[in-house]
Amino acid sequence: MTDYQTARASLGIRLRELREEAGLSGRELAARLGWHPSKVSKLEHGKQTAALEDLRSWARVCGLPEAAEGLAAQLRSLETHYANWRRLLAGGHEPLQRSNAPLDAATRHFRILETACVPGLLQTADYAAFMFRRGVRHHRTPEDIDKAVRARMARQDVLDAPGKRFEILIWEPALRIRLGPDPVMAGQLSRVASEITRRRADIGVIPMGASMDVVPSHGFWIFDGKQVLVETIGAELSLTEDLATEPYRRAFAELSAAALRGPRAVRLVQAIGRDLST
Predict the structure, then answer these.
(1) For the domain bounded by 3-80, which CATH number is listed?
(2) Which PROSITE patterns does the UniProt record give (predicted)?
(3) Mean pLDDT in runs of 10 for the chain (278 residues)?
(4) Which has fewest Cβ within 10 Å: 61, 138, 206, 220?
(5) CATH of region 84-275
(6) Where are the domains of the chain?
């Protein structure tokens, strides 16, 4: 269970406690609120996220309007763990890129796994433009591609910041998926090979033929081992509880052991580049 699911379940438990303290059945509460009984059940079992007004109405009907403030605080905490892309990108991609600056500045140890695309810190401007263009189409967000690319390129300066450590793992399919025209992909692969040699970051490429106990099913970023960001098709998850972040730290360590580094990684990237023409 993710932090988000745990937080929503916890909120549901508190709602049920308030109802029971008021001596109301689920059906009675629903009738007083003018809701379908299934809504009460879904909220109490963490199957649906309550709106702020729902919480206020619930507390009022249970005779404890003062409890609304605590419920609202739980809701705010829940929302920090889950943000859908439509909301995150309401102002476009550029503001979201810039919003990462405080976390980047505060983090000393970055652990990054990407399984479907080149990590943003290693992207060329041309490759990034195609990534943002896809995001605009998919999420129907404001088109600020040029500004977003400039912001992403500026974010890469963190690689030269003193006192920071970067461990980056890229699964081979992420380098093979043609997210742009062949010339763009060729330039991007050349950039990855160059960064491996440059050693600003410890970059490992996990070959498709590697024997692994962990399935690299999706990418994630670990910030100092304290926070994990996971991007899904519909939302970004922010995990902060140790119980939720520990599996990601363990998975990263196991996947890291399967990665190629140095000249062997460069040779694999170059071989992928040669395959572009076949």
Answers:
(1) 1.10.260.40
(2) HTH_CROC1
(3) 69 92 95 95 90 93 92 75 71 88 94 97 98 90 93 97 98 96 97 97 96 91 93 81 85 97 98 89
(4) 138
(5) 3.30.870
(6) 3-80, 84-275
